[in-house]
Amino acid sequence: MNTHVVILAAGKGTRMKSARAKVLHQVAGQPMIEHVLATAATLEPRSTVVVVGHQADSLKAALAGSPGLSFVVQEPQLGTAHALLTTESALRGQTGTLVLLSGDVPLLSAKTLQSLVDRHTSAGAAATVVTAVVDAPFGYGRIVRSSTESGEQIARIVEEKDATPDERQICEINSGIYAFALDGLFDAVRSIAAENAQNEYYLPDLVQIYRQLGRPVETVTVSNPDEIKGINSRIELAAVSRIVRDRKNAELMAAGVTIEDPATAYIDRDVSIGADTILHPGVSLEGRTTIGAGCEIHSGVRIVNSQIGDRVQVFNHSVITDSLVADEVNIGPFAHLRSHADIRARARVGNFVELKKTVLGAGSKSMHLAYLGDGIIGEKVNIGAGVITCNYDGVNKHTTVIEDGAFVGSDSQLIAPVTVGKGAYIGTGTTVRADVPAGALAVSGGKQRNIEGWVEKKAEVRSKK
Ligand code: UD1
Ligand code: CA
C-alpha cells in the first residue's frame, strides 16, 4: 500500500501546565507519542513525518532512536490545518493515502487504523474521518451530518468553541484521526480560513470544503470510544494510563495470572508473565520484564527490565532492576538486585541484601544484611549476615571470587580483588585481604583479651571526679 503517515505534535499543550512537551508525558510507562508511533508502524508506511514546534528540540532528541522518522518544524503554530501544510514539501510528489494522527491520541488500535485505510481506499474517498459516539462529547469537534439520498452523510465538523447550543448536543465526535487522498490535498488545505473562535486554521474544515467541491468524504466510527481519547490535561493523562493498564491486566488474567488487586497493579505493556503466577497488591513490573510461571510477587515489589524464572518468590518491598533470577529462587523481603545481578537456581537472597553485578551460584544463600558487588559466587556458598565485598578502592572496581561450597562467616569483609577457594571457611569478623586456598580456614584480628573487673574500675574512676 502506498501510505504515508503524518503525526501532529507541535501544539503547546497549555492545559498540561508543564515544562515538558505534552507528547513526551508517559502513558503507562511510555511516552504518549511512542504509543502512536508503534500503532502507525503497523501500517508499514512509506514515510512517517512528525510535525514539531513547541519544545521541538527535546522532542526530536527523545525520538532520535526511532527509525524512519522525519521531522518538520511548524513555527508559529497556527492550527491543525497549518500544521499539515508544513509537511507539503516533505511529501512533494507522493501519491496514495496520507494517514493523519495526533500525538496526543495514544490508544487508537492497529485494527481501527487498518479499517480506516481499508474503508478510505475501498470507498475511493477524498477524506475519511474516524469518529466515535460518546456520552461526554465536551471539548471535541462534533460531526454534523445531513440527509442525502444515500443516507446521513457527514456535512462538516464544528469545534466546541464555535458550536451552537444545538450542535453541542451532538454526541458523535471527531477523533482528529483521518485518511486523505494526497491528490489535491494541500491545495484544498490552503483554502481553509481562520475565521473562528480561536483564529486558528482548523483541519476539520476540510470536510465542508470537500463536500462543497463534491469530493466524497467518509467516516469510520469506532465501537470503543476509549480508543480515541485525547490527552489535554493531567487528569486525562491518568485516565488514559488507567485504560492501558486495565487492558494489560485483563490480558494477563485471561492468560492465567492472578492479580489480587488490579487497581494497584502497574504492569507495562511489554511485560510478560507465566500462568499461575500471583501478584499481590501494589506491584510495579516495568520495561522489558519477564516473569515465569508459578511465581508469587508480594506487595510493594518493583521489578524493572529483569528476567525472573519459574516458581520464584519475591517477598515484600524488594527492588530488582536489570537482573536475572533463575527458577525456584527466593528474594527478599527488602532485597535489592541491580546492574546485572545474576541469581542462579534455588539460591536465596534475604532481608536487606544488595547485589550488584554479581553472580550468586545455584543453591547459594545470602540471607541477611550483605553487600555483594562485582562478585562471582559459586554454588552452595553460604554468605553470613553483614558480609561486605569491598569492591571499590576509590578509583577502580575489583572482583571477588568465592568458589563452590565456601562459607563466609558473618561480618566479614572481602577486600577485592580476592579469591576464596572451594570449600574454604572464613571465620566470623575476618578481613580477607589475600586469597584463601581451597579447604583453608581464614581468620584475622588478634587474639581476644578479657580485662577482668574493668566495669567496676571504670565506675570508681568516675565517682572520684
Ligand atoms: C482537535 C480537533 C477536534 C478533535 C480533537 C480530537 C482541530 C481544530 N480540532 O481538537 O475536532 O475532536 O482534536 O482530539 O483540529 N497541533 C499542531 N499544531 C498546531 C495545533 C495543534 O501540531 O498548530 C497538534 C497538537 O500538538 C495535537 C494535535 O495537533 O497533537 C491536536 O491539537 P489540539 O490543540 O490538541 O486540538 P484539540 O483542541 O484537541
Ligand atoms: Ca487534543
- Low-pLDDT runs of 5+ residues are none
Strand content: 25-35%
- Class of secondary structure makeup: alpha/beta
Rg result? 31 Å
* Small-molecule components bound: uridine-diphosphate-N-acetylglucosamine, calcium ion
Number of strands: 39
Shape: elongated
The residue-averaged pLDDT reads 96
Distance between the termini: 97 Å
Largest sheet: 16 strands, parallel
Determine the number of helices (DSSP H or I, runs of at least 4 residues). Answer: 9
Helix fraction by DSSP (H/I, runs of at least 4): 10-25%
Please sum up the structure shown.
The chain has 465 residues and is of the alpha/beta class. It is elongated.
Using brief descriptors, characterize the structure shown:
465 residues; alpha/beta; 16-stranded parallel sheet; 9 helices; 31% strand; binds uridine-diphosphate-N-acetylglucosamine; binds calcium ion
